[in-house]
Amino acid sequence: MTTSQDVVVSEMGIGAGGAAMPGSGAAGLFACRSAASAGAMSMRQTYRDLAAAASRSANCTWAELEAMRAASPTRSRPGTDVDELTAWMRKHPSALGKFEQIASASKGKKIVMFLDYDGTLSPIVANPDAAYMSDAVHNFVGLSELYYAGSHGMDIKGPGSNPESVLCQPASEFLPMIDEVYKVLVEKTKSTPGAKVENNKFCLSVHFRCVDEKRWNFLAEQVKAVIKDYPMLKLTQGRKVFELRPSIMWDKGKALEFLLESLGFASCSDVLPVYIGDDRTDEDAFKVLRKRGQGVGILVSKCAKETSASYSLQDPAEVMEFLLRLVDWKRRSSAPPMVRPRV
Q: What are 182-215's pLDDT values in tens digits?
């Protein structure tokens, strides 16, 4: 994900058209909040200790230009023929085509949705600030009931706007450094037309969606020149974006585990986590689900590429279709059987 927030929707908080799903009343939501707060207190120090113990390699190497192109596809790769794509789709079939299989695995379980934003709920656009959630998706999710995880899960907040809704910020001590590096990057990249630096609070994104491909390598060198003076930050790459974030043992997979633990779902056999994302950074969450042997990972991509996700969807439109079908199925499966009057 390349915008500032991911969206995490608990099964108790999913809504469609403003109407809550069965079993999502106020009492259920309150219990969900309480579990999150209690879990956060016990785990926050654990992850802070992990962060303090993490170390970063002194030599930060960067991918070659070809790797940048491979990680930032704008269309099907020229070398991807029909047979290769067909083989990839057999390994990662459409979540829509296999919907009944996913629904069957969900029977009798709470579905906990983890949703990336930019490229998943919103199309990838030239200006990252212009990425927005469509009205249909906005109405579907019922925003006030969500848990938000920004900056690759380093800024997790629960429903509500009060300070107690902040559940986890394992990299809070890095904030002054990140603000400082942001200013340096903005100044440094001024000479590269189309480059945009975004401050996501706990990480920085240098977007090159609008940068001429001939200048990608030059921009990478500019970013490397800045980060070499800040060894406590690490450099990663996503879809047409360079990202600088604290070098701590934390990623979207750790955030997923934290939320499941905080919500009281970590050891529950009647819970099915579903994670939908489009970026390389979402792979950490897909790997966690595979390791757990419990959950569904769905990659949003039109291209065949290495992934730990089990299923695929092509674009945000298909994501919306999948979510609507899931809500409709959940409602119908939870509804009491119809009693026909005797004649």
A: 999 999 999 999 999 999 888 999 999 899 999 9
Q: Report the alpha-carbon distance of residue 209 to residue 185 in Å, rounded.
A: 17
Residue 265 tokens read as 């779902």
**25 is a domain residue:** yes
Residue 117: pLDDT band (50, 70, 90) is: confident
Exposure string over 177-213, b if 16+ CB within 10 A, otherwise e: ebeebbebbeebbeebeebbbbbbbbbbbbbbbebee
d(CA 145, CA 9): 8
In a domain, 222, yes or no: no
Give how many domains the chain has, as a whole number: 1
CATH number of the domain where residue 11 is located: 3.40.50.1000
Query: Do the Cβ atoms of 71 and 237 come closer than 8 Å?
Result: yes
Q: Please determine, for residue 94, whether its predicted confidence score (pLDDT) is greater than 70.
A: yes
Judged by DSSP in three states, 59 sits in coil
Classify burial at 25, counting beta carbons within 10 Å of its beta carbon; exposed 0-12, middle 13-18, buried 19 or more: exposed
Residue 74 placed within a domain: yes
The domain in which residue 295 lies consists of 5-172+249-334
Tokens for 341, please give them.
């009057």
Q: Is residue 89 part of a domain?
A: yes
